[in-house]
Amino acid sequence: MSEATLIRQVTSGLVEAHRSGVAWASRDFDPKLTIEDAYAVQDAVAQSLGWFSSGDSCVWKAGGKVQMTAARLPLVLCSGAYWSAAGCHQLTLEAELAFRLGSTPAGIDDVLSSIATVCVSIEMVGTRMKDGFIAPATWRLADNSMHGVLVTGCEVPFSQRQWAEQTASVEVNGKVLAEVRGTHPNGDPLTPLPWLLAHLHARGRQLRAGDLVTTGAWSILPVEPGDSVCVRFDALGEATLHIRP
């Protein structure tokens, strides 16, 4: 199978899964799907589903320890929202922080000084593919990094912190299921930002004033439709989400 045919096949399967809510059962997870192919699928799926308008500020997720990756997020809700997980299978909660740029960075050395605010966020991830959680990394990346929805709390002015001392907790249905300290996979949650800027520049894009970026999970927990969840970060606030059954 040619590269172009593989990209079209994966795009078609994921678009249909989004529209129908039924997990796409690929015949196999072809190992020839590359990272660049995965980004091409992301773009093609977004275009097919009409996710983005040209004038919109962007919301990005970026992160990874061995290999950093990125995805533009189409669904962002405010804390306290109710969300239907229909079509997003094997739900998993990721407790994160999101950083808002107050100015457009001139370059990599400028990106951290461009941050204006930070907020607690919840990303719900899941798969649109049958057995998607055990698919190769490039296939999970093609599935928009398995994004379901991002929920954001109140934004507060950004200032550098001792990230190794940062504490967070996750509640599910009123019960604390996780309490963590300094557990960001990169140590410093700002690490993915310069990488994301370079990644976007290589693709003829840019980070702009107003863009929001999540940078990796401090805690990961499985959840179910019907659950109510709350993520709190000490001194930074909280975010809540109600998952419709």
Secondary structure layout plus pairing:
Layout: H1 3-20, H2 35-49, E1 59-63, E2 69-72, E3 76-78, E4 81-84, E5 89-101, E6 115-127, H3 137-142, E7 147-152, E8 156-157, E9 167-172, E10 175-181, H4 192-202, E11 212-214, E12 219-222, E13 228-233, E14 237-244
Parallel strand pairs: 1-11, 3-7, 4-14
Antiparallel strand pairs: 1-2, 5-6, 5-11, 5-12, 6-7, 6-8, 9-10, 9-13, 13-14
Helix pairs in contact: 1-2
Question: Can you describe this structure in just a few lines?
Answer:
This protein is an alpha+beta fold. The protein contains four helices and 14 strands.
Protein architecture, described:
Helix 1 crosses helix 2 (35-49). This protein is 20% helix and 34% strand. The protein has four helices and 14 strands. Strands 1, 2, 3, 5, 6, 7, 8, 11 and 12 form a nine-stranded mixed beta sheet that branches. Strands 4-14-13-9-10 form a five-stranded mixed beta sheet, with no helix packed on it. It is globular, with a radius of gyration of 17 Å. Strand 13 (228-233) and strand 14 (237-244) form a beta hairpin. The chain has a single domain, classed as Fumarylacetoacetase-like, C-terminal domain (Fumarylacetoacetate hydrolase, domain 2, Alpha-Beta Complex), CATH 3.90.850.
**Globular, elongated, flat, extended or rod-shaped: what is the shape?**
globular
Number of domains: 1
CATH class: Alpha Beta
The CATH architecture name reads Alpha-Beta Complex
Name given to the CATH homologous superfamily: Fumarylacetoacetase-like, C-terminal domain
User: What distance lies between the first and last C-alpha atoms, to the nearest angstrom?
Assistant: 40 Å
Q: Mind describing the biggest β-sheet?
A: 9 strands, mixed
**Secondary-structure element pattern, one letter each:** HHEEEEEEHEEEEHEEEE
Class by helix and strand content? alpha+beta
On the 0 to 100 scale, the average pLDDT is 96
Share of helix, binned: 10-25%
Q: Kindly state the number of beta strands.
A: 14
Beta-strand level of the residues, as a percent range? Answer: 25-35%
Which segments are poorly predicted (pLDDT under 50) over 5 or more consecutive residues? none
